């Protein structure tokens, strides 16, 4: 097989009987299916081995998170293409073939994601990926089909393949050789935004990221780390700063980070008013981590900058998506113009 489906798992055994049989069925003769277990404390490993003997199971001795976990498990795999697939994703008929066709037809395509719809409401896009990811000039991520908390209903408005800025880690097809060449995911991230960072580096290396409209999957979301937890808030704010520090060109680094920190301060105050002190503290601690580790990560930034072949900014929204969303009331992707 040229392709492997690698499902990273941590204590989500309940999802296997619900979603794994469909993955196995739709990938037969096309891709190997591998469950990579991140030192789960439930019976995930024994359950998969006893109920799904056709699936290869790999195990680690500790929980490396999403970023470190995939780095650990992919290191020893020899495939041309890898699909990173969450345990809480329901695939559909013919979900994989269109993505493989797209990436094989264009050697400049580094990664592809399908249309991500909500498993809980299958007519709506799903928060983590929708119809492809983008960021604005200050690093705020959003999606075609989802800006902040506004999630669009799928009316076929994004049924066309398009180049995007980032592909979701919930279901991402990537070139294994390029993943290795760029050093994989940034393990400091642990979880959240590591796929955006990787896609940014892939584009800086001269490659493209694509959304494949002919492929559809349904994502539950929050399968490993629940939505709305302070730790999730901490990781999102911390990793966003790490990503900007790593990938921004020198002439934009200081100004962009300063403005981003002002936005984060406003967000922290809003968290304090709406949610109490825990999420406020999460933002504060995210910034403390960044200040403490900025010097240590100068070498990581230097290596990322060294690998840049082109500064591709065409899929970075040139304005502030915060301004357009909250002040101009542009709540859907097609309302943004650039």
Tags for this model:
338 residues, alpha/beta, 9-stranded mixed beta sheet, 11 helices, 40% helix
Overall number of strands: 14
Give the proportion of residues in helices: 25-40%
The helix count comes to: 11
Please give the oligomerization state of what you see: single chain
Folded structure, characterized:
- The protein is α/β, with parallel strands linked by helices and about 350 residues long.
- About 40% of the residues lie in helices and about 20% in strands.
- It is built from 11 helices and 14 strands.
- The chain has helices at about 15-25, 45-50, 65-75, 95-105, 175-180, 195-205, 230-245, 250-275, 275-295, 300-305, 320-325; strands spanning about 5-10, 30-35, 55-60, 80-85, 90, 110-120, 135, 140-145, 145, 150, 160-165, 170-175, 210-220, 315.
- Strands 1, 2, 3, 4, 5, 6, 11, 12 and 13 form a 9-stranded mixed beta sheet that branches. The chain has a 3-stranded mixed beta sheet with strand order 8-7-14, with no helix packed on it.
- Helix 6 (about 195-205) runs parallel beside helix 7, helix 7 (about 230-245) packs antiparallel against helix 8 and helix 8 packs antiparallel against helix 9.
Topology readout:
Layout: E1 3-9, H1 13-27, E2 32-37, H2 44-51, E3 56-59, H3 65-74, E4 81-86, E5 89-91, H4 97-105, E6 109-118, E7 133-136, E8 141-143, E9 146-147, E10 150-151, E11 162-164, E12 171-175, H5 176-181, H6 194-204, E13 208-219, H7 230-247, H8 250-275, H9 277-293, H10 298-306, E14 316-317, H11 321-326
Parallel strand pairs: 1-2, 1-4, 2-3, 6-13, 7-14
Antiparallel strand pairs: 4-12, 5-13, 6-12, 7-8, 9-10, 11-13
Helix pairs in contact: 6-7, 7-8, 7-9, 8-9
């Amino acid at each position: 097989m040229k392709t492997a489906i690698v499902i990273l798992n941590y204590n989500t055994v309940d999802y296997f009987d619900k979603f794994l049989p469909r993955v196995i069925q739709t990938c037969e003769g096309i891709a190997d299916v591998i469950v990579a277990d991140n030192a789960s404390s439930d019976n995930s490993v024994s359950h998969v081995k006893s109920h799904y003997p056709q699936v290869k199971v790999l195990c680690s001795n500790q929980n490396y998170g999403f970023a470190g976990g995939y780095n650990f498990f992919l290191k020893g795999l020899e495939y041309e293409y890898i699909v990173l697939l969450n345990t809480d994703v329901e695939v559909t008929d013919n979900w994989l073939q269109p993505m493989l066709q797209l990436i094989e037809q264009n050697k400049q395509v580094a990664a592809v994601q399908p249309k991500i719809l909500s498993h809980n409401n299958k007519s709506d896009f799903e928060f983590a990926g929708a119809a492809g990811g983008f960021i604005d000039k200050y690093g705020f991520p959003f999606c075609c089909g989802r800006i902040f908390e506004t999630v669009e209903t799928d009316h076929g408005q994004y049924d066309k393949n398009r180049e995007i800025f980032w592909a979701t880690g919930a279901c991402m097809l990537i070139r294994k050789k390029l993943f290795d060449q760029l050093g994989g995911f940034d393990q400091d991230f642990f979880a959240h935004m590591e796929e955006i960072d990787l896609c940014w580096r892939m584009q800086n290396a001269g490659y493209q990221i694509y959304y494949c409209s002919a492929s559809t999957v349904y994502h539950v979301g929050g399968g490993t780390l629940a939505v709305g937890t302070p730790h999730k808030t901490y990781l999102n704010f911390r990793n966003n700063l790490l990503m900007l520090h790593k990938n921004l060109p020198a002439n934009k680094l200081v100004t962009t980070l300063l403005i981003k920190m002002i936005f984060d301060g406003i967000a922290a105050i809003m968290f304090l008013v709406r949610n109490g002190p825990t999420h406020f503290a999460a933002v504060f601690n995210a910034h403390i981590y960044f200040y403490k580790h900025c010097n240590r990560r100068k070498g990581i930034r230097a290596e990322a900058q060294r690998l840049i072949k082109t500064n591709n900014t065409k899929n970075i929204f040139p304005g502030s998506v915060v301004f357009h969303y909250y002040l101009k009331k542009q709540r859907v992707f097609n309302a943004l113009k650039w």
